[in-house]
Write a structure and sequence with these properties.
Elements: H1 19-40, H2 45-48, H3 51-67, H4 72-100, H5 111-117, H6 145-150, H7 154-175, H8 177-192, H9 201-225, H10 235-252, H11 266-283, H12 298-306, H13 308-329, H14 333-338, H15 340-344, H16 350-364, H17 366-371
């Protein structure tokens, strides 16, 4: 972190050389933590590393960088082009499976609305519909698979809205940096304490996510614009722990536990994620090359970044498949009698979850390449010229 500079906030400061590698590492760790959390379900994991806040911050940084170089309509179209085709692939497989399992217009009680809501699988301005009580396939996929497939799509919906609002957010950020960055936290507080009442649950979901993670997106934009570098070096290390402590205190006093963690507490989430992201962006080392201990992870980090959307969209289905297969192992008498610890321990499932996720990367990840107008690759780990689809 450099000393305070009288840099004009309206002129984006050149990114330090090598910062992208630090950001790639953050994104890879965030993605791994998401998969780990959805398998283990430990409430402390989102506290140890607030993956969603980090991912929104990195996306906001990239969006601000793009808006500084190209016209806003072109940037927004490019972001949507990269985001939506992987979702369409998931919808083609998932919605087809739900229809074959008996899901249909009568499930929501309003057949006309059901057909309209299906369009959210094409443009997710709100949560797409899904079958909540669909049976699984015995021995292949667990019950509730449709819920596990569709519920994480809140991130895609929130990402879409942030992209659409980014030209306005960047203009506001340049005009009034810190009031703009802190406005989402104020919105989250207003929703939490009843100062703002929202009649529609769809609108409430959008506003809740904007309040919980909007400050992280804006921090990413502010970092790219040079706003954070204008602060004295002692401000962030002094302020961020206090904000994080208040957010954690609020969570602990409002039922923080397994099954009710930060993901269910938007206000606490907004404070904790804001503080963590602020510290991580404050550190932001300039790496001209990977530090020696991290060089061995270069290909893995490259792969996770190249297939971040695919991994996020498909990993929950992979978890369901592994859990269904694990349940079948209880039918093997020798395993049940001699290794019950193996069958009960989710750690033993983790390698197989990643194995299936890797299979999804091979089967569906090439869509991300087509969306980015690149030649499709099966395994884009950074090796030149190999593994073309």
């Amino acid at each position: 972190m450099t000393t305070t500079r009288p840099t004009d906030v309206t002129a984006p400061t050149r990114a330090p050389q090598g910062r992208d590698r630090y950001f790639d590492l953050l994104r890879a760790v965030a993605l791994f933590r998401v998969v780990f959390y959805h398998l283990m379900g430990w409430a402390w994991l989102p506290v140890a590393f607030p993956s969603m806040g980090v991912m929104f911050a990195l996306a906001g940084n990239l969006m601000a960088r793009s808006l500084g170089k190209r016209p806003a309509p072109e940037v927004v179209r490019g972001r949507l082009r990269r985001l939506l085709p992987p979702l369409w692939m998931l919808g083609a497989v998932g919605v087809t499976g739900m229809l074959l399992a008996g899901w249909g217009p009568d499930d929501e009680g309003h057949p006309g609305w059901w057909w309209l809501h299906l369009t959210f699988w094409i443009l997710p301005l709100s949560d797409p519909p899904y079958g909540e009580n669909l049976p699984g396939v015995h021995g292949l996929i667990a019950d509730g698979w449709a819920v596990d497939l569709a519920v994480p799509l809140w991130y895609i919906r929130a990402y879409l809205w942030f992209v659409l609002l980014s030209p306005l957010l960047l203009r506001a950020l340049r005009a009034a940096p810190w009031p703009t960055v802190l406005a989402p936290i104020a919105l989250s507080a207003a929703l939490e304490f009843g100062a703002v009442s929202v009649p529609s649950w769809r609108l409430d979901s959008n506003l809740s996510d904007l309040g919980a993670f909007g400050a992280c997106w804006l921090l990413g934009m502010a970092h790219q614009e040079g706003v954070l570098r204008r602060l004295p070096r002692y401000v962030v290390p002094s302020l961020a722990p206090a904000v994080a402590g208040f957010g954690l205190w609020y969570a602990l006093t409002h039922g923080f536990e397994a099954g009710h963690d930060l993901d269910d507490m938007p206000f606490a989430q907004s404070l904790w994620s804001f503080a963590a992201v602020l510290l991580l962006l404050h550190l932001s080392p300039s790496w001209s090359e990977w530090p020696r201990p991290l060089r061995r992870w270069d290909r893995l980090v490259t792969l996770l970044n190249s297939r971040a959307v695919t991994i996020y969209l498909w990993h929950n289905v992979c978890i369901d498949v592994v859990e269904a297969l694990w349940d079948r192992l209880w039918g093997i008498a020798w395993l049940e009698e001699n290794t019950p610890w193996l069958l009960e321990n989710p750690w033993s499932q983790l390698p197989f979850v990643w194995l299936l996720t890797a299979l999804c990367v091979v089967c569906f990840g090439w869509v991300e390449d087509l969306a980015a107008r690149r030649g499709p690759r099966l395994w884009p780990d950074g090796r030149t010229g190999g593994h073309r689809a």
